[in-house]
Amino acid sequence: MLLRFITLLSLALSAAVCGFTGAFESLGWLWKLPLAFGGFWIVQCLGAFFFLWAICHGIDLSEPQEQDDPFYRKVTTVYCQAILSILRMRLHITGMEQLPTQGRFLLVCNHLHILDPVLLLACFPKSQLAFISKRENDNMFIIGKLMHKLLCQPINRENDREALRTILRCISILKEDKASIMVFPEGYTSLDGKLHHFRSGAFKIAQKANVPIVVCAIQNTQHVFHNFLRLRSTPVELHLAGVIPPEALKGVTTVEIGQQVHTMMAQALGPDLVAQDAPAQTSSEE
Q1: What is the CATH number of domain 67-273?
Q2: pTM for this prediction
Q3: How confident is the model at residue 278 (pLDDT cuts 50, 70, 90)?
């Protein structure tokens, strides 16, 4: 939507400039129109970036965020969708008819690239996803402040006590109907593009909050930047592999839940994209 608006406005402004300068009365418009269009397009993109910086500049990360902010949620969705268009990501989405239409849920997905959260935010605009993210991401320019406004929860992967506090906070967010929680159960970005073992603690969130687990699988986001620099588009696939209802989570361990989720992701990705040394779970948490 944002990119379309910028493109159409740039075209209108460049046509107006050519009209006022009389370029359409000769062949001058052949070079003036694209030149003006390119200039207006770049200026407006810079303006969009400045607007994003301006609305994030005053956000105080030390001040607790108690509710999902609808303004920043809408802005984030619009900008994420624009990023997908700029990077020429050709989306192929399947299984979305399984997405719960009522209530909150825990969304889990494999992790290939830094673009994965952008893709998920663009594809689930109404789900109010709040990510569990490594605490280092809070320091990322603009991104850290947007995440704060969207109720994203930083996690210290090196400190079990702090990680537990994050888990409890996410359970509270779900129970209080503030947002749905999204987590990459592998814990890290895959370096080889394959599905690896999970950390089991995140599945406790769905158990304690009594919400379903929505299982997704992503393919090809790790190739987007490489193809973009070579002026190529990238086919990106998002599969909603299935939904595990809350009643199926009762009386089982998080290890067993992880095994089921891992199997669902593996089936959606195919055997070539699953690491051979990847057990479903390595953690003993239950």
Answers
A1: 3.40.1130.10
A2: 0.90
A3: low
